Amino acid sequence: MNGRLTRWSADPITGASAILHMRQFHPLDDWYGMAPLEAALLSVDQHNAAGAWNQALLNQGARPSGALVFAPKDGGASNLSDDQVQRLREEMDQLYQGKGNAGRPLILEGGLDWREMSLSPKDMDWLAGRDAAARDIALAFGVPAQLVGLSGAQTYANMAEARLALYEETVLPLIHRVIAAFDHWLTPLFDDSLNLDFDMDDISALTARRDSQWDKLQRVDFLTVNEKRAAVGYGPVEGGDSVRGA
User: Fold this and answer.
1) d(Cα 68, Cα 72) in Å, to the nearest integer?
2) What is the widest separation between alpha-carbon atoms in the chain?
């Protein structure tokens, strides 16, 4: 920082250090690993470039405006002078560019002809390319494409199922990985008997799964009360070591 070199030592055997380095799997670099953003780097660049292209297109009236063709009819000079070209550009910028001037008719002087230009289907492929890039970015981070609003990405029946898949396949594994790393690195600095945890019941997206699990346990008649409580993450209670109805 600020041109200063700072070193943090690490035990070469145990890896103990004042800094916790968490990394994703990288087949060629097991020291630094690979971040999800690195895997999606090209897709991020493509998505940003598509957005910049779209913004520039919108600034020009949401389409290539067209071309002014100079065709003198009186046999005069076949080219406009530099001053005339500069004046035309300034008038176009002032009177016809921007959303406030969209659809404004052109007033052309003698010898000028307006030729409309349109986008070909190939030129319009930027939209499909941007969606593909966004889908790749979401895939790199483990987010269902349905949740980022991509058209045609209805992998799950509804948004609730997509949110549930996001938590079960991405968020919860990440939480468990972070907690395990902190339990191994941080809590021994205070007390070996400490451990970190989180309250899964506070996650609204998991409500349906939790209710289903509780209903199943409620109908089970071969488990004790404490076994049922342990299955949902609760501690034992007094008198809960017998099967109800036995």
Assistant:
1) 12
2) 111
